[in-house]
Design brief:
Chain lengths: 118, 113
């Protein structure tokens, strides 16, 4: 398996521009997570989906951020308009969540999208 | 979510054992303890997990206190490739529903040659 695939790997954009980050989870996984990582705040959960449905978006910073998962193999995180404080590494992760399987459910991360807003 | 507390950073000499502590005093009976690590410029990766008993795998060992309020990740012989940020997280599967998983800051491990 190719693992979780994210694109773009690196993006530099100007303040005010729209940014779209893309993610392809591991085939067969039913949970998908978007995280943001900065030096100050560490790894923060933005939103997670289960079976393509957004379950918890309480970590989404503000209305400028939106995420979609139109099908089991694709998700996007969009920032519109972007601001310099959005500069961070954005990770997508996926796992298989099985209700009664207590021990497993390893989360697999992509390599991240490094965003710089100038 | 039950929270975990870890030191911000630790140092170890190469080829010596490393004990990375994690406090989770509000852990519930259905919380599993998971450890992940993040190598430079990569996403986090799974290391090990446990519930009550100590666990061993090829990467590390996990020692869990009898009251489960703390745990220790043990790297038996640190190598330079073990230099990473280590995250201790709790995962509750009792709800049977959907899992919010937060990672926080973690412990940055430096390995000194």
């Amino acid at each position: 398996d190719a693992g979780v695939i994210q694109s773009p790997r690196h993006e530099v954009t100007e303040m005010g521009q729209e940014v779209t980050l893309r993610c392809k989870p591991i085939s067969g996984h039913n949970s998908l997570f978007w995280y943001r990582q900065t030096m100050m705040r560490g790894l923060e959960l933005l939103i997670y989906f289960n079976n393509n449905v957004p379950i918890d978006d309480s970590g989404m910073p503000e209305d400028r951020f939106s995420a979609k998962m139109p099908n089991a193999s694709f998700s996007t995180l969009k920032i519109q308009p972007s601001e310099p404080r959005d500069s961070a590494v954005y990770f997508c992760a996926s796992s298989f969540h099985f209700r009664d399987r207590g021990a497993g459910n390893t989360i697999y991360f992509g390599e991240g999208s490094w965003l710089t807003v100038v | 979510d039950a929270k975990t507390t870890q030191p911000n950073s630790m140092e170890s000499n190469e080829e010596e054992p490393v004990h990375l502590p994690c406090n989770h005093s509000t852990i519930s009976g259905t919380d599993y303890i998971h450890w992940y690590r993040q190598l430079p410029s990569q996403g986090p990766e799974y290391v090990i997990h446990g519930l009550t008993s100590n666990v061993n795998n090829r990467m590390a060992s996990l020692a869990i206190a009898e009251d489960r309020k703390s745990s220790t990740l043990i790297l038996h012989r640190a190598t330079l490739r073990d230099a990473a940020v280590y995250y201790c997280i709790l995962r509750d599967f009792s709800s049977g529903g959907y899992q919010k998983v937060t990672f926080g800051i973690g412990t940055k491990l430096q390995v000194i040659p």
